[in-house]
Amino acid sequence: VNHPKHATFFVEKLWSYFIPVPPDAQTRAGLEAIYRKDFEVQPVLDAILRHPALYNGPRMVKPPVVYIAGLLRGLNRGIDTSAWVWLSDGAGQRLFNPPNVAGWDDSRWLDTNAFRGRWYIANTALEKVSLGDRKGKKGPKVPNDPEAIVEGALAVLGNPTIRPETHRELLTFARGSLKGATGWKAESYPPLVANAVRQLLAVSPDLQTC
């Protein structure tokens, strides 16, 4: 701790776990002063969690485990299967087994391979609330109404905050999918579209980042 670069390294490393851009010189100096006072982590962490940059700065991609936890919390679903181990691994993070002593590379949480894993995570998280026929039993009736389907998807996932752009895209998808759905399609298509909207919401940038 007496190394002249220790406090700076520690502060910037801890900061980077919560905010994706470096602290400005004044903020860094203030955090270093807090740390040097007693060399305790908690006061520095408290200061970071109260800093405006945490709330107003750029969003960060959630690690797979954090993404899983957020989905399950929104769905009010607990850990009821060991599948989350390999699902998280497929998205790039196997718990207690980082690639090296530095931990996982936060800059690589999203690539073409890892996103495929996240798609499976969302699909597994939503499987217990999927709509339509299940084991010969009819599910709840889904209205042939794009707005109601999107609002229903938000409610199922715990009413997360999403951008207007995301809401608009989900509505556009639902309207296009239900267009011309008359006759038997008017009853059969809505639950399928609702399942798709839930999946798209779960893998949207709004739920992948924080």
Can you offer a commentary on this structure?
With 210 residues, the protein is mainly alpha-helical. Helix content is 58%, strand content 0%. It contains 11 helices and no strands. The chain is elongated, with a radius of gyration of 22 Å. The two termini are 32 Å apart. The mean pLDDT is 92.
CA-based gyration radius: 22 Å
What is the CA–CA distance across the termini? 32 Å
The helix/strand order is: HHHHHHHHHHH
Which descriptor suits the 3D outline?
A: elongated
Structural category: mainly alpha
How much strand? under 5%
- Low-confidence blocks of residues: none
Mean pLDDT: 92
State the major sheet: none
Helix content: 55-70%
Helix count equals 11
Q: Give the strand tally.
A: 0
